Amino acid sequence: MDLDRHTLLQLYRTMKTIRDFEERGIPETGQRGMSASVHSSAGQEAVPTGVCANLTDDDYIGSTHRGHGHCIAKGVDPKGMMAELFGRATGPNKGKGGSMHIADMSKGMLGTNGIVAGSVPLAVGAALTSKLRHGNRRVAVAFFGDGGANQGVLHECMNLASVWKLPVVFCCENNGYAESTPVEYALSTSRVSDRAAGYDMPGIHVDGMDVFAVYDAAREAVARARNGDGPSLLECRTYRYYGHTVFDNPLSYRTAEEEAHWRGRDPLKLFRETVIPQGEITPDQLDAIDAEVAALMEEAVAFADASPLPQPQELYDDVYVDYPVEMMRRGANMPV
Amino acid sequence: MTTTTATRELQVREAINEAIRQEMERDETVIIMGEEIAGGAGREHLGIVDAWGGPFRTTVGLIQQFGNQRVLDTPLSEAAFVGTAIGAASTGMRAIAELMFVDFIGVCMDQMLNNAAKMRYMFGGQVKVPFVMLTRIGAGFGSAAQHSESYYSIFSHIPGLKGVVPSDPYTAKGLLISAIRDDDPVVFFEHKGLYTNRGPVPEEPYTYPIGKARTVRQGSDVTLVGLSKMTWIANNAAEELAKDGINAEVVDLLSISPIDYDHVLESVRKTHRVVVVDEDTPVCSMASEICARVAEEGFDYLDAPPSRVTAPHTPVPYSRALENIYLPNETRVINTVKNLFR
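Predict the joint structure of the above. Result:
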């Protein structure tokens, strides 16, 4: 790890933005009656931050249901994301998608996804485009969880990407639980990264609370992909601080001691403990970022609240590129 | 029997739970598997058992009573566990698999389409497949397009599958017991908006026949056919229409395969008009199927075109501003009915 000051501050800013978006945005969304499908990634910030710091807007990511962090790390505007969660027309998806479907193609963000491992083949497809049209210069990262690690489509995709030598990084955010089901029950191996061997690609396991460990491992995997050397599987062991959704009490299946252990390894705290003693960054600089991010969240909530709701006829927009609206309404006795 | 004289009341979620429990008590070959149907799996040594009791608590308590060999939490591998349940069902078990939301059917549809539905036919009748898929439908919760659809008509289209859409605790328990005892694969659709619906349920096990509709409101002027929660939207609309002198009959379809065409036709013979209220999308739907059948077999009864109130031909939108328009509601039913009397 030999990062310049700008990069260090940027890593911290990204993690803090994710944390505050979760801590502020989710309750705000709940107060507006839209929290049924919102999943907090608080605790997991180091993973999207460390991975996406190696990517540009031309690179692609596919995300999960727990995807706010991926969006922010890939450069999606938190104000627009907040508007999307509130169901407003100014969200990147115009209020059609919400938390589980945030997409911003201008940032190479191929969508959070409500189907477990659902975005993995999309990332592989983007990697194919990169190979065919961009000489592998664009890299795709497929994020999935330890739950997604057990979906057939992931395994088919790892095989295909290996066979076709596609510039893709399969990134498993192993937070220990698929909803309420612990990894030690559901996974056949203690490490998801071990499964790489079956697909003839490197399998790397890192501490997903340590943004520098994630950054370094991802840098290597991304470089390998860009060189045309094919895919990698990167497993980041992390933890989610909250339940599967706001309706889930995680203490029904895990212990307070376990939560305290992981919170003691908080990625923002670890960052400060690592960087400040090195003297390059002062606590004041990080505190200033905290204040900026808090102000940004304030602005995001105000922006979302001030944004218009979608107009009724927008119900029929973007189902297709080209299709008669009348054919979507016909026979249904719709009010608009 | 389409209603009950029982006085004990349960919620739909409790009725479903009781049906599974009683069938597991009655028949040791009944097993159930799915994601988080108990929850916190494998942590018995920490005193953790049944952490969730199911995502909507329909399976709560089963693992304590029947153990983790008959109540099986699964990895997030729908193709694997749905197919496994079908395989177990074809070799001596009565297997229930819970698919958390019907939107997830894409991942495991092949098991339904090419195994469950066709095995018996392709194998020349050598196997029975006593398999039940429990799954969930219904919009209205701000859960967007991958957690809100009501894809039951897809299943009614597949020869070899049966399907039921209960509307209250009584039909939920009776239809689920029928589904578990049935020797064919049955898909049981639970509407997320009905779990807390309360009603009388007999304590003893009973069956409600698959393929039988029922009339929940007598009327003479128009037949409203409802499915699942839409039965109650239709019923509310009927109450409003009565104030304007239109006496609507409400038929609760309850099964999507086989479909009780005769019950609908019998009602339309009396009322001369039919409106199907269906939360699924309209093209090639239950609503279009029923309208077509009424037009074919009940043409002479009709004083107005068979009509539908459905979702539009779009995915479910996230924003409440749009989701409220998407969903069929009482106003749309009332306006559609009134148009038939112009």
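Chain A has one domain: 5-333.
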